[in-house]
Amino acid sequence: MRTNLTIIMLIALTGLSGAGVLDSYPPENAAVLYYKCAIQYMPSDELKSKISDAATGVIEIDEELAKEINGYEHVIKELVDAGGIAKCDWGIDYSQGIATLLSGLSDIKNLSKLLIADARLLCSEGKYAEAINLCVAAERLASHVSDMTLISGLVGTSISAMGDKCVTHILGEMPHEAKQLLRVKTILGNFENRVDRIKVGLDGEKLLAMVHFDPRSEMRMTPKMLKEFGWKPETDAEKKLNKILIDKLSRADDVFFNELTDYWFKMIDNFIACYDLPYAEAYGRMNVEIPEMIFNDSQKKPEATLARPFMPALGKIYSLSIKSQNSLNAIKAAVEVYLVKAKTGKLPGKLPAGCAKDLFSGKDFIYEKTADGFVIRCQGKELGDDKVHEYEFKVKK
Amino acid sequence: MGKNNDETKLDGLIHDAVGGESRFDFAKWKSEHTEEIEAYHAMNAIDARIRSHRRSLKVSAIVTAAAAILVFAFLVWPDIGNETVLVKPGDGIVASSYTPLPAHLPTVGRLNAAFAEGGIDAVEKFCERSERKSGARPGRLTAMDIFIEFEANIETKKGSEYENQSDNNNAYSFDRA
Fold it and tell me: DSSP code of A387?
């Protein structure tokens, strides 16, 4: 009787646990696959460098390198699978504040290079749809890595830039058939907005700051920690405020920590509000006005003095995200041009109506035909670099 | 206690049977009825074993049922054991426990500082340097590599710890056929 009961229970439990194992792929969390891929992808420094050059188009992929890339097909397959998963929780321990480790960013960048190098290889073999699929996987990886913090979002921006170059290359190589181009148009239309992506990373940044701004946290800001993080009073006003600051931190003063939190969040909200403004205005506020306001406050209010080193470089990050989204917009506009060529057999005289806009100017891109294709140029400058960006697209004769 | 109790009980039964008034010589009766007395004790011993077995069956059933309830609860209620303990304001100041990590590790603060100094390139270089310093990795590790390494470890063990235990050697050999 007892033996029978035990057997029934064991069978029931085995059945339940077995069902879990069988249904576990793909996992619900994309990060599981990304970390798995990072463990499996361990090229030598020499091979890593070659794959990097191939991904950025510096070198052509020869037979030997193609064989090496194909040897990682199992990794590439799982990267594509990971791209199809909505949720990506990297298991970051935000409780360590700005001492939180962001391990694996370099591995993630290397994995993206493997994807893009393979996309270029497939393109050279005439497998354009498959090549575009790998660029989509790279963009998903960029999007997923941006979920951690603002700084990881920069790695995402860098991956997206590499992917854009590859898509531009594929568009120049593939036959311009309406069906194929409409597929690319749909895919690009589904890409996440790269400016909005930064806002997700900002949520992580808020968690990090709160760890240091909570007077009851083990990681609350202390005079010792302030020194460790490299903060030094520089101006006379800061030197005067330093004593007050150290006293308040040493006592874990509740009122002071509340003022600090309020001030930091108020300034972050000021930055976020700029995202809805036209580029030039937002750039001015984020890179000049708000930082100046914070600096001036930091010379009078101890909470602002302490909040200043915790302010992420949102102005710079905003510029990079606009540049990244503008590159995608230019590719979207180029696809419209290629579609006209697919339908009429020749390049249009002007940019088709309804194309994505140049974010630097808020206007249409400038379109010009060239000897081997066309150029899409911004009307506005990137203010930080004082540069007008242009994007070249080729057309096979 | 059991045996004395049985004898008192037996004495009482016989006393009741023969009548309360007369004095009964139990020692004499016992010497004349040894077989009946042995049979009575044997029956009592069997009864005790059955009672004990029944008790143990009851305990086993209760333990099994309790285990089944616990297993079921963990399966259908995954949050067991994950209760959040909230620190309320006024609970007192916790000692600060910040310990800086080794300088090559990519923390948010260090990557932010790298970005402030040299932009995205500086962030990527910091991450690459950190990866190199974190230690060498094998070029490629296959299941066969793991197997060979595992077998080599066992051979080493055989040569030292088990060198005088020739009888046990077969237990650590692998049949590769």
Answer: B
